[in-house]
Amino acid sequence: MKRNLDLGLLRTLICISETGSMSGAAQRLYVTQGAVSHQVKRLEQLLDQRLLERGNDGVRLSDAGLRLVNEGRELLRMHDELLSSFTVASVTGRVRLGVPYDLLARQLPPMLQAFIARYPQVEVAVTAGTSPGLRRQYDAGELDLVILEEMHGSSSGRLLRLDRPVWIGKSEGTAWTRRPLPVSLVAPDCVFRPLIQSVLGAAGRDWYTVMDYPSIEATISTVLTDDAVSVLLASTVPPALQILDDSSGLPGLPQFAISLQGLDAGDSPAAAALADAIVEGYVQLNVAMP
């Protein structure tokens, strides 16, 4: 008797491998952790193989699980492309997307280019801003989809990526040694401002703002000229800048989450298609930049 592989179960296992935990997969898939565990058990029973090794430090893929994930990604890609090929022509409309300045500069361009090439009849209107500002616009109904950077644990929506903020400075620069510490931020409501204020206050380090201007390019410029340091997510740091490690004496920063809001916009096929493209884009990014 032939058996059929449930692609939903396969997606769950791949999510576990990408997030590193049952709880991370549950958050990404919008299900309970118990449901994720049940789906893995069903998949193990179907294949008569142990796919996860469970230990005190969490879960990891077994040899069989690693093989299934590696080969299963290609299977899911082919499945999704085939399904999409029957619906692309009918997807039209306009989607208002909000993206933080740093992500728009470093991560979103290839995802948006691929989406526009695939859905030429969809108009994407992108608004760049800070996460607090974009959330206000989304709550006011001015945006259909919004990508947000928030402290991990306080984030909502679909988890796209976990990342850590880092201090950055000019390569071989000295701005980080100055007292008070000069800091350049992208805007007065920069999502990192409360964090910077908290950790520097706890460390007894005085600081002041060199620039509050809504431009990631202007922020980077002040760092490149060694007029200030700044804070960015590690995956968005330009190659020309240096990540300041613990030897700088600057306090460590907690993990942040990049999440997508607006997945409940089910009335808009265009918004749903863009949301799927962003999620898939981050799946690929997370593989390339673990």
TrEMBL record:
Domain HTH lysR-type: 5-62
Recorded superkingdom: Bacteria
GO molecular function, one term: DNA binding
Pfam family of the protein (one): LysR_substrate
Keywords linked to the UniProt accession: DNA-binding, Transcription, Transcription regulation
Signal peptide: none
Protein family (similarity comment): Belongs to the LysR transcriptional regulatory family.
Protein name: DNA-binding transcriptional regulator, LysR family
